[in-house]
Please model this.
Amino acid sequence: MELAHVSDLHIRWRPGQSGAPFARYLNKRVVGWLNLTFHRSHPIAVLSALVADLRESPPDHLAVTGDFTNLALPGEFERAREFLEATELPAERVSVIPGNHDTYVRASVGRFEEVLADWLDPALGVEAWPRSRRVGDVLLIGTQSCVPTPVFQAWGAMGERQLSALGEALASDDAPVKLVLVHHPPLLAGGKPEKPRRGNRDAAGLLEACVGRADAILCGHTHRAFHHVHEGLHVLCAGSSTSSVKALGEGATYNRYRIEEGRLLGYEVRGYDPAQGRFVHLRNESLGALEAARS
Model:
């Protein structure tokens, strides 16, 4: 089985089609728009190349770990839906979770679940996290770490109820491979904690729920790809799958994980090559046998 992991798409609305009146920008979105305009760049050409790469070599399953949008505007969510449809993967082969930009302001809470309902179970409701899905030998558990935060803050929180349910879901399923999807990573590269204004405030609880039960946590948020091992638990960040080198010094990347005979063996890192206008192979990473993760 091959699982593609993309994250932090930050899809912009079409010019003149934000879907929101000007008054809706008179909040945290003002800062977000300025940041987007002058500091960040997620070209639509890179998103198109990502779609082309996924269609040229379709994975068995696709996981998207949040930040479909920039400012959680209606027009951005519609384009996020168009992205998922453009991959031509059936909904049962796609797992999605929200990012902090998808819950940017209080008025946007619930819009993710509403617009992307075809890739979720709408009967579960907005607050039904975690959400589990069994795909062959793999248990995928999507979580929600995102809440509206004040200006210049992007921290996440999961809450005791969700963490308890996550631990129970991991413990009660006999899947050979168990993967947890979360937007805010519990740790950064090298095991460093994230800054309080950007980090996962329930990082300790997340690690406690996953160590010895899950094989890996797949995450995003940082816009920088990394792989860290914490007490046998692999923390894998896909970076941003649409970022330009100009924006953050690191180009767009995503991962393709190899799962064979009930084992997560390794992954391919693919990245966007501006000269060719497409995603190309960057490197292979080996994870080896992961039995130790649940020993």
